[in-house]
């Protein structure tokens, strides 16, 4: 029996190499990609087991009286790199945030990659390194993953699906159906930064003022808020569809109206300017590092103070109130003094914004 | 202030409708798709909360002394519908199996959909219904999900990424690095059925004998095995790259050689015939309802008996032995009496087989 020479393969040519179909085939090329690019970047005990699943301890006392949460999001953003972030950091922040919006502490992430044949390895490494950095900064490890490759023309560079799990502390019960008439509506900062940053890159507008995406992991902000006031009614991050669509969702889920005051909603002047130029309404533009908090009115001041004391909540504001309304309308007193309905986003304002 | 009429939108036209970009936009069209198609099919308490994440109880006694597992897989199979299954059932079975291959009991699944503009709603409904059925049959609910839409030509119909979590019972420690020289290598049934079923559909070969995919959820089989013999060393499902690539992975992880006996490896005659026609080796062809089990030799008979008593393990067989080998080669005594090396899959034998 002739034995093959089991020499080590040459390392991946990150600078000039490209993804081909063998990188998704389950054989030696995939193994090499996983080792040299993914395991090297994400490096953690669970992933380093190199099994098809990650096993890890959850101290039972963490779960005592608490609940688990699970959330998933696909990221198809175009372009892949944008001012203030990229698809890799976004895929970590977005999913950490969806865990945190249950008032939960994130435990771990998984990452599934669907890559188009021909995608540059250098871009893949940049994205994976950015994910790994975001994950380390957030303290939430990517414990398991998967890579698939589709033929050129059957994808668009790279799509990433991340899933997160976490644990809700005892006594915390945050849900979109818990808003009550009289509740205060808070936001953690300026609206529309992410969407405008991505659009400016896409349209090559080159604004004088660089507008950066607000992409950030909000779980430490949420932890501070929950520690101060466990009885928060609703938390949600206004991503696709922006503040307007997210508040409409909550209004319908809770069966309340929401009355906003336009002059209290923080929007950066440069974002306002860009929105005018692009024909967009900042209330419908995606955010990736902001949250909406709805709480009993007596907790609003405490929560605002906690938010403003956190680097990611410095511009937090009270922007409205929940009201009795069997139609569950979101309305707004405009800066001009009129009143208008803030309806759902009807069509697609900004495709592939996350 | 003029209020919009909040009439109910017309229900989705499943028979003739198609996905457009608004279905991924975060607005009303997405809301409708999620309600009428996804929530209606998957219907469970956690999902019905309609939050961006699912919250559920995990009884602390389940975790006492045990560990959690998390796993993710992207499904890009082409064609979407194949003899014996479709991308929807496959996305449930494949991820349930990756949880089970840790010896774990699956708790819940998430599902992320990336859909190409123009995709028929009727196909989407067929796929989602199939996922929901597979999930109900397995007793593992899809508790949360996400939908993104990409422009026509930037995807390929539909990609699905499912993530699963589960709990490993106390005393169970299954991992790819635990194979030892002397261990028995078992498989739960015939090799190559899934890959050949998909290829036959793709190439429109129309074999006389219908070859069906073996796609199935193996967690109840694993539960029976673990109950009989908690000290199983390795479990893994030989999907992409087939038995040969999976055994090579295990051999390297564990630092052992693996000696197979060709005549003991179960392969259906019609699969063998189709492989000859297609120029494929059944040992490299994907399976989606089979497992490899490596255990101490004294447990082999018990485990074989347990497997054969389960409907998904009727054709279980002892196919080889782990041996001392610092090179971690997989070798095979052929039916002709020779010996050959069973190397890694070098290239891409069957693109997009899962």
Automatic annotation (TrEMBL), chains A, B:
Residues 64-168 form the PurM-like N-terminal domain. Residues 180-331 form the PurM-like C-terminal domain. It comes from the Bacteria. InterPro entries: HypE, PurM-like_C_dom, PurM-like_C_sf, PurM-like_N, PurM-like_N_sf. One of its GO terms (biological process) is protein maturation. Belongs to the HypE family. This is Hydrogenase expression/formation protein HypE. The lineage of its organism: Bacteria, Pseudomonadati, Pseudomonadota, Alphaproteobacteria, Rhodospirillales.
